Protein: Lipase
Amino acid sequence: MHLRTRAFAALAALAVSFGLANGTTSAARAAGQPAGAPGDIVTAAPTSFHPLPGQPTRTKAWHITYRSTTAEGTPNVVSGTVIVPQDGRTGPRPLVTYAVGTVGLGDACAPSAGFPYGTTLEANLIQQLTLRGWAVAVTDYEGLGTPGDHTYAVGPAEGHAVLDAARAAQRLPQAGLGPASPVGIMGYSQGGQASGWAAELHDSYAPELDVRGTASGGVPADLLKTADHNDGGIGAGFLLMAAAGHDAAHPELRLDTYLNDKGRSHVAYMKKHCVVINTVAGLFKRISDVTVRNPLDAPDWQRALRASTLGTHAPRHPVYLYHGVIDELIPYAVGRQLRADWCAKGANVHWKSLSLGEHILGVITESVPAANWLADRFAGEPASGNCR
Structure:
């Protein structure tokens, strides 16, 4: 067993034992589930945050593991990072719970694993937030940096992890935040899905959080349509990763029974590597190339993928939603439909079509406008949506 996994397992066991000694239910005892409430800290240790290798930042950071909830509603433990500017400010400050885009399936791909070395892909965008004086909580998502497989592209699991990262940051004494900190939610691509799910789940799952707004971009709001778009294309690797992610969240789907030898080899390879390698490995693969039968034709797979569809519940706080017109990975029509669904349900949505750039350029060009929009929400400025 990997040393990091052994250490985590021992700490988790201690946490469970502590919880049992303090009134954990017999059901949790029998299931061996982690103790505590969603957002409770399991472990915390100082780490460092570097946008680039060796680049100093006026921040303090902590690697944390915290209680969260799986897509099926059972307790789990997720890792992440809390980053706080060292600017002399005391008391509550804005907190952004930040959902990164696709990093891969291997534990080494986790954002927390790259922050000390300046290798996490979106660290420069996160630094833009800390330079504004905001604290940032960055989830690793379920199964990245913790035992088990990453439940990649499984919306409810991601939404829980994002909201519980904010709870955990507020409960981390060293961070100096607390429940009075206003919260913003932010993410693009996979992070757009995760932040969108956090927005939809906020009022039912974490209503105590003072969420002022969510900024989500490049959102794969409909996985079936996104899968169809990427079958045989440059984003085919994401499709294979999403299949592995849903199989991790729902083992009864039995992905291995649909894969041929090539497909099993590809999935096993992707579970050990990060996004750039996995994208190259999956280029132009068709579902028919790696399966003996198409899982997307199976009712249980369709149900599982539809369970990650966004737009069924209106966020109760304002949303800044943006999508590239020529996005080559997530169809523009998918983002536009999410806007229509949320607007139809009465959400306060500011929609922005990005006329220039493909998928990756969207997160870069829109990072400042999205953060400016959040700054207005933190300042108490009213949000004017453009649904009409």
In short: The two ends are 56 Å apart (CA to CA).
